[in-house]
Amino acid sequence: MAFSRLWQAFPGNDGTSVMSDLPQRLLDYWPRSAWQDRTILVAVSGGADSVALVRLLVELADPATRKKLVVVHFNHRLRGEQSDADAQFVEDLAKGLGVSVRTGIASGGWHRDAKGGQGLEANARGLRYAFFEEVAREVEARYLVTAHHRDDQIETILHRILRGTGIAGLGGMQTAREWLPGVGLVRPLLSFSRDDIIEYLVSIKQVWREDASNLTIEFTRNRIRNELLPYLRDAYGEHVDNALFRLGQQARDCQEVIDRQVQTLLDLAVQTSTFGRSVVVRKLADVPPYLVRELFVRIWDEQNWPRQEMTQLHWQRLSNLAKSDDPTATDTLPGDIRAMRDGDVLILRSV
């Protein structure tokens, strides 16, 4: 069981009492009525953020709900004995709190096929969430809760800016969304800073594990955390964090308006058939190109068509096809999706 290296940086480590308002703030965001008496998976890595999350839920839950909390931990086996120690720490923590725990473990050598840091991160996430899904179905969970916090959100927004993103991506992570049918993914700490979280842990004298890999610059997110953000704060002031967080909030607000307009277009101009979708293009004549592109993104999502290789250029080609004067124009898109004009109708189908 390891103390965080940050432990000494906060008041209360000398035995004095430090009160945290985090429990009440969490209830203000996620009221008990929304999750009491529901089976909840709590993703716990052993780090400060997820340890704080499970401690908060145990503290705030009534006895019946406490019995329905299930801690889930996945051992990626990337750090040898340290990974095993993380798993043991989480099991001991859950046992001490009186809640159930399920631990998964990766097979040996899985990471050898990953290409680069981002490939490794993506593969690790895939394994982890596959295990979470297995447990969720087994225990009939209503929610999966994760400990992403404000600092994570800021890093996500900055990462997406650097990678290239639209308004939806600029909004960062959603506070809540459907993860599996009937199972929600909730991030109740998303508006809380890491300092808030550490202060809470210190106030209850709770230790946590420190992942040394978070301090390396091997992965893109870690480089943003350990190099780029510190540089921006030094060069432009600490308000950089608030500016990026506000930008994400504003982008999410804009996306909500866009989503409503897209739904109106979907109801007005799009029909479903056995082969795919058909779009009545004359009903898009006065619609701004951006909204037309967003309409196609929605169609792709609803059809479960792959869009990993769909670029801004592909969406623009679709928009141009919808507004083309050529009533027989066609195009083929990534994932073997065929777009064909048939007069006033644009037919979209998987080949």
UniProtKB/TrEMBL annotation:
GO terms for cellular component: cytoplasm. Residues 40-227 form the tRNA(Ile)-lysidine/2-thiocytidine synthase N-terminal domain. Its EC number is 6.3.4.19. It is found in: Cytoplasm. ATP binds at residues 45-50. GO terms for molecular function: ATP binding; tRNA(Ile)-lysidine synthase activity. GO terms for biological process: tRNA modification. Keywords: ATP-binding, Cytoplasm, Ligase, Nucleotide-binding, tRNA processing. It is an enzyme of class 6 (ligase). Ligates lysine onto the cytidine present at position 34 of the AUA codon-specific tRNA(Ile) that contains the anticodon CAU, in an ATP-dependent manner. Cytidine is converted to lysidine, thus changing the amino acid specificity of the tRNA from methionine to isoleucine. PANTHER family: TRNA(ILE)-LYSIDINE SYNTHASE-RELATED (PTHR43033). NCBIfam families: lysidine_TilS_N. The N-terminal region contains the highly conserved SGGXDS motif, predicted to be a P-loop motif involved in ATP binding. Belongs to the tRNA(Ile)-lysidine synthase family. This is tRNA(Ile)-lysidine synthase. The lineage of its organism: Bacteria, Pseudomonadati, Planctomycetota, Planctomycetia, Pirellulales.
